């Protein structure tokens, strides 16, 4: 059987479990996940290689395939420039796709014009209300597509099976979905069936990425996301939404081999955490730098396992008033844009290399160099 390949965009409301699904399919953490809505800000591509599964009497089999899964920010009405940018990422992901997964949270209950959402902290007890207009807004995006759209009901681990039927009926009256697949991204339940349905809809074609490539996103940007994830997890109120992380220095070790002392080599990283107000900066730093230290330590552990090296991590907190409303600042946060700027800088420094003096990266010791700037 020939190879099938294509782009599969995962879209849905914030917190539906898009990033969890991407990570579960790839078997690796590529997108950060938190219980806070609007965690994902950019589209994230993960490349999934699927081997041929031969047809048997009990199995219809599956073609060999390369599936480029595209995680997107949660669909929401844009308010700030950052929101607009996030929604642009969703639109871009919907433009170049072969199949779309419209993912909905099966724990939501729909009554009339309102959606009742489970509170993660008090499962089954408290329900918060949301307007159904948000569901409709997300649905409108896929209704106009000309490609197959699969309805993916996520979080079925938290819902009695009997409750699924009314949800399926509700959504099926609103759009003609190519398939309806109940899954639990968290428990990795239903994913094989989902992949079968996806692959059968992909065209035969060539690989878009080399066989062993997991993503198009360079490691330094995954690192920035891991730091942002810890901010989301460790700080409350408005801070998570007002925070952005920019990697300012990224020095990879010359060799990945262990040193004579048996220790892994070191990657040296310095990152700026941007927030919008002095008060947010104070929260991010914490009393005597405790919060920043906590963010740094938690992030460093994850970054070390991502990179397979030891990591010296230095964090700075900077205030950029109302950055979410500033178009240029928001555009500059985009990793594709940053990559272009880096390439330009490297081109310039290559030509200046002979006259320039080397600047040594400061040695932070074993601890995080968490400090305020
Ligand atoms: N019970 C349960 N929880 C899940 C499942 N999948 C995701 N979650 C939880 O739902 C929350 C949101 O998950 P994410 O994967 O960040 O959701 P998202 O759709 O990417 O969110 P945004 O980035 O806001 O768009 C997290 O707390 C997840 O652990 C699931 O299958 N079952």
Automatic annotation (TrEMBL):
Keywords (A to Z) from UniProt: Cell membrane, Cytoplasm, GTP-binding, Membrane, Nucleotide-binding, Ribosome biogenesis, RNA-binding, rRNA-binding
Segments of this protein annotated with the region G4: 154-157
UniProt keyword rRNA-binding, yes or no: yes
Region annotation (G1) ranges: 12-19
Biased segments, Acidic residues type: 363-373
Family of this protein: Belongs to the TRAFAC class TrmE-Era-EngA-EngB-Septin-like GTPase superfamily. Era GTPase family.
Name of the protein: GTPase Era
Source organism (scientific name): Granulicella cerasi
